[in-house]
Amino acid sequence: MSTRSTTRRTARSQALFDEASRHLAGGVGSGTRSPRSGWRPVPVFVAEASGSRLTDVDGNVYLDYQMGQGPLILGHRPAPVIEAVTRQLNERGSMWALAHDLEGLAAAAVSARVPSMELLRFGNSGTECVQYALRFARAFTGREKIVRFEGHYHGWSDAIHFSVHPSLDEAGPRDAPATVPSSSGIPAALAETLIVAPWNDVEALERVFAERGEEIAAVITEPILGNAGGVLPRQGYLERMRELTREHGAVLIFDEVLTGHRVGAGGAQGLFGIEPDLTVLAKALGAGFPVAAVGGRREILELVTDGRTMHGGTYNSSPLVCAAVVAATAATGEPGFYETLTARGERLASGLVELAHAAGLEACWSGVGPLCQLWFAPKPPGDYREAIALAQRSPFPTFFAELLDRGVLVQPPQEGLFLISGAHSDEDVETTLELAAEAMPAVARAAAEGRVGPMGGVR
Ligand code: PMP
Fold it and tell me: pLDDT tens per residue, the chain (459 residues)?
């Protein structure tokens, strides 16, 4: 039985949080790290991390399933990537803003893994490359409207940061959701450039195309809805999306920032056998280094090649991140890498479900092995609104707190995605299940006493 207590766990973290809050807005560098997003009573302040483990400034060691919110596909400080980047840094330099050998090598490595990305460009974050994908799609089609789905997150840019996790009071009818800005400070006029649709609903998408097909430049989707519960697309849904976009001359954009290089060698599109016109990658692409990519059909990217559509950026494809991409792609390209990851994730997810059942709780899991999520519900959600409804009845906050106190770290928002890396061993999975077994009675008590509800704000 764990002997940790929250007070002992957080003493130094609390002091650092108080100190940081004097000048750093909110004491943290991103909304997802704040107490508002579930890190209570204080955010975990990291001392160091290695492999599947992370140590905080209070000396607590955690089995980490947050994995940097996705990038750490090889775990913390993966030797081949760190070696390649260190060599680049020590022997050649970190920053040129000039052409170099590694960017072509990195681009070839990405295209080989995701063949729909015939041509591509690199950038620094998912947000930035999504913004470019929208621009490329509009330039290619000469149209303006983008169809986006409720509950999906495509980065924080004004262009697309609408209806991410709207409150149900403002979200409007399920079949024709309102276009709700997800932050203050976003010009209301931009809502006019978007059409918000419910996800996983073929009829709703057919209706949108029947009514406004000629205005639609692109449909953008997370092919697995990682940002609202690891929700899988229903049978035939992405296929129909592919057909409709093709029939109406619209560009299909897969935002694989979270799923790319994670759910399989070829991302979600490889798993489902669907070729989008444009793809955005980030996170696992650099295995911990800040790099993203946008690419797709040759004739779309040729707009960039010939300069009709602007793509630029001082830090684009720096030699440091290109060295990381080449090394990371080689390491995750080892035979069996994704099969092992998937098997471990499935063992973990199904083990958690069994433990919850044994404690008398309803439970199931969603997603795929390397990106999976436990739900205290009989069946996983199919879209954002179902996810919210389940979260409101869920004892997940207790599960999260009990796990954290025992040294297991998952993402607090959306009921906790488990992200598995190549550094997680079978033994790690078994240890996690033992710790989760200790946590379950408290979760069952919380459920029985009605201590349920969502974790709170997300971004
Ligand atoms: N798209 C998706 C699907 C994401 O999950 C994220 C990040 N969570 C983004 C875009 C934005 O990426 P970044 O944080 O690198 O800007």
Answer: 344 667 668 899 999 999 999 999 999 999 889 998 888 889 999 999 999 999 999 999 999 999 999 999 999 999 999 999 999 999 999 999 999 999 999 999 999 999 999 999 999 999 999 999 999 999 999 999 999 999 999 999 999 999 999 999 999 999 999 999 999 999 999 999 999 999 999 999 999 999 999 999 999 999 999 999 899 999 999 999 999 999 999 999 999 999 999 999 999 999 999 999 999 999 999 999 999 999 999 999 999 999 999 999 999 999 999 999 999 999 999 999 999 999 999 999 999 999 999 999 999 999 999 999 999 999 999 999 999 999 999 999 999 999 999 999 998 866 779 999 999 999 999 999 999 999 999 999 999 999 998 876 443
Q: Which of these is catalytic: 153, 237, 338, 384?
A: 153
* CA 11 to centroid of ligand 1, rounded, Å: 32
Active-site residue 379, yes or no?
A: no
CA distances from 338 to 161, 332, 408 (A): 31, 7, 23
Residues in Cβ contact with 267 at an 8 Å cutoff, skipping those fewer than 6 apart: 113, 114, 223, 254, 256, 259, 260, 261, 279, 281
Q: What whole-number distance in Å separates Cα of residue 402 and Cα of residue 380?
A: 22
The amino acid at 324 = A
Which position among 62, 64, 145, 283 bears the catalytic label?
283
Task: Tell me which amino acid residue 349 is.
Answer: A
Query: Ligand 1, from 283, 458, 459: best to mutate by most atoms within 8 Å of Cβ?
Result: 283
The residue type at 99: A
Separation CA 364–CA 362 (nearest Å): 7
pTM tops 0.70: yes
- For residue 194, which of 246, 150, 260, 255 has the smallest C-alpha distance? 150
Question: Residue 284: CB within 6 Å of ligand 1?
Answer: no
Q: Is the CB of 153 under 6 A from ligand 1?
A: yes
Beta bridge partners of 280: 255, 294
Q: How far is CA 180 from CA 51, 70, 164, 417, in A?
A: 40, 27, 8, 25
Question: Does the C-beta of 222 come closer than 6 Å to ligand 1?
Answer: yes
Phi, psi (rounded to 5 degrees) for 301: -70, -20
